[in-house]
């Protein structure tokens, strides 16, 4: 699979400012907005820094004193060695949905690939100490959604997260893992093989420097990225103190859909998901429920995803549909005409059709579910 190209331009300067004391995602974006460029922010005096909204004297002095202390070159060399791309928020490749949250990561470390098709993403999260039922549901939902063209996002933790990634991979679908440590580490370590598979069929991401260890304080901020990458978040088996609830809260705070799979009323692992349902989260027990919860996109796909779920459950996929027997929308016909018997990457489909990425994604999913095209590894499609 084609890898992401080089780092974002001037990424060394972005890293230098980002690693200054007192500079987090929100402060960085305020600096960028006020000064117009990272160069100007790096050269600003304490007096100029104090003019930025929310930056007082102490913070301004911290930033001015620390902004020359970080040496980006070793980080860039290690990233190159590991095959990791470092991109900033003004890079065109930066995920569109993530950019819209209140505190998006200023810098993303990416191993694998990101593409416009990932705008059609759903997060699946839950407890590390899950039951067999929880694992089965995470894998089932991920498999069917990935098979229908959605990208599955999660945190690659033990339990529900790992089951979700594996379910997506079993459908030859795309999946994105957000780590709570730097990408020079794999956490948990037993997921090294899963990590490698995800980078071949999606991407592993982190906002943390490459060598950062998986410390407990890293995970709540990590969860906002999972929610931010996704149209909606599904919670499967989570205790009342589970990090999955932080992901759900982040989704709500950024006007994204929150869904939950109900569990046994007497199980501690079900209390978090069941509590979310009591508070108004969408109760889901089928893929159709997920699609319905996603609003306009879901309405366009509802009938076809219902058929897909039923066929997958019964392992009786019917490929006897013909183009003539199905009424295609204008976008579906246009996308269908752009494909042939040879595999075509989704990015090439978008270029050939001259349609928006969202229109192409919806059309591809509909055509696949109508049995007119096939999904191939690496986000390729063919008739």
Summarize this, please?
The chain is α/β, with parallel strands linked by helices. It folds into three domains: 20-69, DNA polymerase, domain 1; 112-293, Rossmann fold; 318-382, Orthogonal Bundle (Arc Repressor Mutant, subunit A), CATH 1.10.10.10.
Order of helices and strands: HHHHHHEHEEHEHEHEHEHEHEHHHEHHEE
Report the CATH architecture of the largest domain.
3-Layer(aba) Sandwich
Per the CATH scheme, the topology name of the largest domain is: Rossmann fold
Helix and strand composition category: alpha/beta
Total E-strand runs: 12
- Number of H/I helices: 18
Q: Could you say how many structural domains there are in total?
A: 3
Low-confidence segments, ≥5 residues, pLDDT <50?
Answer: 315-325
Strand content: 5-15%
| Top CATH class of the largest domain | Alpha Beta
What would you call the shape? globular
- Arithmetic mean pLDDT: 86
Fraction of residues in helix: 40-55%
Summary keywords:
Rossmann fold; 3-stranded antiparallel β-sheet; Arc Repressor Mutant, subunit A; 3 domains; 12 strands; DNA polymerase, domain 1; 383 residues; globular; alpha/beta; single chain; 9-stranded mixed β-sheet
